[in-house]
């Protein structure tokens, strides 16, 4: 990959997540006692370097969106720490966090739900500027025009309402809103999964162009492996609230180590009729995150499960340069 | 194909022929198509104009008694006849529109404002705030509304102003609950998450994002509530708990004349028709607004 290579000096990661957990309590009974918890994210650690794109993939419900929202503290983590530029942001007060939010922004999955239907595009794009203290009205208007052009829309679109735009255009507006206050990190929560395939590539290219131009760092959450491969420098694979494998993107696609990653990749269609693909079909369903299996979370469905897999939870360890995997096969 | 590749963003080439269509404008468009609703609006506008220009329109004073003219049947001189004190009923109805609409608008405005604040707090902050506010609403709703209004007027003393206050109080839980439920659903929308992600404060999120998206059902419910407030005001007037004589309040006019329903039916008929028409107007308009503004009714 181009990005990251050639940088010989050690750089502090922009984001570092350590043992992050999100347990949603389940209230039950007459008195609303906590009877259990949904372990949406159960102890994950990773870091994102400045200027790179980390892809996060996994099935629905594996906790990838929850992870993204916790980094922005839209959800309060149950445990663990998040360092942003070396500063622990889990301990910041609501007020301090609000200021820090200008450094990190989010692009949402559903472009139809993420724009307030009663505001014009101009107002939607202007609001982050107002909130973060751009006082001069003319300056704000100018910035709105600028943003619209950056994402490939026109200045006259500012006076329109969200329902007058198509999905792809709305997602461009969502991206423009995220860019408004010059953030360093953008968390993209499945930004293209609600769009047509033809529009997907336009939006992905836009995201890549913006990254080059403004030196942005992305956490790119998706369930589409093809999309993630296209955009990511490194990819993390999540299963049932845990990170099972994380590596350089090319490395992961060429040489997947974890049986779950292997199964996922074998499901990606390859546009070549002569290519005979060996599909790994997984049996059964994802276990409930309320009661995750003991040991390795994947052992109930793993084709290569061994005895120790059901007892000991494997830890993420570096097997090759920059390629981490959590699996007993490589002990 | 080549054209699209060459152009970095084909979207920019669209001409700016159509301008912004706000959701409110769109609502007005579909409201206009609904004939029945427009009739309702016209009735309401008719009564509002009547109330505003009562001084110019009324042929006689509403309180000048002329006992010689007692119980005159409708004629070219007195279109709606006269009552037992010889007062012109048409003039009294015209001035009565002022009172009824005044009570209707202001009692609803009062309950909307209080209901809005309580509903927003309960819905947005949830937890114990919601517990307390919702239980208060439950207590208020446990009483039959007209009985509660009578009780409140009994405490405050009978007058039109106190009737207005009583009607406002009994309508608060209806609006509060409506707003609370809207807030609960709007709060989960992604644009609220987006607003939080941008770093907005609660106040800004509530007033700029939550509130505007709760307004449509409030406008609908508000219009319908004006209709029932007018009826409740008339009911309190009828019971002698609202406007006091000689105020030309429609309900109170009904009460004064009910003894003469056989000798002089017009004394009862016209105030009754006035109440019915205004209420009908507001109800038709409210139904039309519901169709126009409620997204669930759109296909």
Can you characterise this structure?
The complex is a heterodimer of chains A (331) and B (299). In chain A, 28% of the residues lie in helices and 24% in strands. By secondary structure, chain A is of the alpha/beta class. Chain A is globular and about 65 Å long. Mean pLDDT of chain A is 85; it is low at 1-9. By secondary structure, chain B is mainly α. In chain B, helix 5 runs parallel beside helix 8. Chain B: It is found in: Cell membrane.
Which key features would you list for this structure?
heterodimer, A: 331 residues, alpha/beta, Rossmann fold, 8-stranded mixed sheet, globular, B: 299 residues, mainly alpha, MetI-like fold, 13 helices, 0% strand, disordered N terminus
User: For the largest interface in this structure, which chains are involved and how many residues does each contribute?
Assistant: A-B, 38 and 29 residues
Alpha plus pi helix count of chain A: 9
Please identify the top-level CATH class of chain A: Alpha Beta
Amino-to-carboxy terminus distance of chain B = 35 Å
Main sheet specs of chain A: 8 strands, mixed
Give, in order, the helices and strands of chain B. Answer: HHHHHHHHHHHHH
What gyration radius of chain A follows from the Cα positions, in whole Å?
A: 21 Å
Spatial order of the strands forming the largest sheet of chain A = 6-7-8-3-9-10-12-11
Proportion of residues in β-strands of chain A: 15-25%
Provide mean pLDDT of chain B, rounded.
Answer: 84
What can be said about the biggest beta sheet of chain B?
none
CATH superfamily of chain B: MetI-like
Distance between the termini of chain A: 29 Å
* CATH superfamily heading of chain A: P-loop containing nucleotide triphosphate hydrolases
What structural class should be given to the helix and strand makeup of chain B?
A: mainly alpha
Task: Give me the strand/helix succession of chain A.
Answer: EEEHEEHEHHHEHEHEEHHEE
Number of strands of chain A: 12
Instruction: Give average pLDDT of chain A, whole number.
Output: 85
GO biological process, one term (chain B): transmembrane transport
Protein name (chain B): Peptide ABC transporter permease
Transmembrane segments (chain B): 36-54, 101-124, 136-157, 163-179, 214-240, 260-282
Domain ABC transmembrane type-1 (chain B): 97-286
